[in-house]
Amino acid sequence: MNIPHWLADIFAAIMLATAAYCVGRLVFARLRGRHVDHDTDLVHVLMGVGMAGMLVSDLNPLDGTVWKAVFAVTTLWFAGRVALGRHGDDRARLALRHHVPHLVLSGAMLYMYLAPSGARAGSASGGGMGDAMGGSASMVVHYPILALVLALFLCGYAVIVIDRTPLVAASGGTPDARGTAPAAPLGACCAVAGAGDTEALPSASGAGQDGGRGQGRGQNPVRSLLAPRAANCCDIAMSVTMAFMLITLLQ
Amino acid sequence: MSETTLGGPEVALSLGRAHSVPKVRRTPAEIRRLLQLALAALWLLDGLLQLQPFMFTKAFATQIIDPTAQGNPSAVAHSITWSAGIIGHHPVGTNAAFAAVQLLLGLGIACRPTVRAALAASIGWSLAVWWFGEGLGGILTGGASPLSGAPGGVILYALLAVLLWPTDREGPFPAARPVGAVAARGLWLLLWGSLVFFTLQSANTGPQDMNAMIAGMADGQPDWLGAIIKHSASLVAHRGLAASIILAAVLALVAVAVLLPPAVRRALIVLALVLAAVIWVVGEAMGGVFGGQGTDPNSGPLLALIALAYWPATPRRPGRRRPETWRGRPREHSPLAR
Q1: What angle do CA B277, A103, B112 make, to 5 degrees?
Q2: Shortest CA gap A113–chain B (Å)
Q3: What are the pLDDT digits (tens) for A40-78?
Q4: Which of A3, A176, A180 is opposite residue B53, by nearest beta carbon?
């Protein structure tokens, strides 16, 4: 029993759009000399393409073994950053809350490639979900409780990021005037999406990061493209899609 | 050691160095917002569960919706059969709509500008699903039991929407802020008192009734969960009446918690959390999500969330007042103080 094709197509399209946005983000940041979280955006690109390939096997450009290796590396990378952050200064520890969710996201990707076994032979994902997405009769998922725990974490992470991400960018003004700056407590996990962004430091939030430099700067489309607020939207899309895929593994 | 206390940027910076930053207590508004976010996450999970392949088949109507008509009064049963017929004829379209509504409710509650609208919509949606999708949680069938999810998981979403409604009113616990302490206590008594009543219904007190109810949940579950359920079922085998009385006594104890001093209430709310966990794992098989046919996590997590909404606020001690400003702004500008 597979998920409807149109549903898989929708989620795959969202993932590819997210990956494309992150590529654009990396390119524009380089062209404009702005600093963004390269590792996060790069992993978003990989995850977007990887998940699109899981949902629609025709879109999968790589073998499952390669993907496993890729996400093993990204998981180790974020694990390393988390470990380093725990022993760093205050700024590093603030960034820790940003890296932990990405560690989980990378780990969840790895899990999705490793957990299913017995999927249809010849699946493009080579042992991943591929065409078996939605649970073929022959597919067995190892440690389904882990899929549930990860899905719950990702749902929680998604709502926290939404909570910290204003619907519209601030149009300008001083950082204090931005009002809804969601930084601080829970927000740190997403707010620090901008920790490495030069625009983000005043408030460490996803809101109108460009507003702190004067009126009207938030209108610049390139600045909007690079705003952590937009990166938060990627996090939300990734988390919800991944939670959906994990839940589909439960059956 | 991680510092997870919320309240301001200074706390966010304290991760891993709890001793280096003064501990700041969360405000009631911040606590309520956290509970709202938990509710949003559950709605989001609901929506994603609704997107499982099984839900897009006619079997969703015939195996999930239609059976809830059984034992209900004819008016209720007919309305359920009618809705199941519609869903059965258009399983893809109706299920996609159901999932979209639930996803939007979750996203709406998580988004600050839409939280009120989403909570209000969730009440209407929950009542409709409670009637047409859950058969009023089986409360009119005479066979409802807390172990099987009575009074219906979805009605608890509506209750939570009311208890967590954003308001500026003060209260001794989060749930008291929107409706007042007396009404909130009344709702708690009604909820847990009804669970006592359902536990002691004759359909649940036979020697093997509880055993059969629990053991029946083991089918199709992962080995470890099935083993827990089967073991639990064996504990109450041939002891249905005694087990029901004990369960009812514990539920009654939880029910009166809101009438007792805060210290005792805290202990009983912890008991309620444990009870919710036991009901969720043993009685509800974690909402049946491992079978691919679980439409929601059932009542266990919601009972726990409701219990947390009744956690008594700790009075502030003189000299330990919370800073009046947040990032140089008035406290009401704090991200969680909405």
Answers
A1: 65
A2: 19
A3: 899 999 999 999 999 998 998 888 899 999 999 999 999
A4: A3
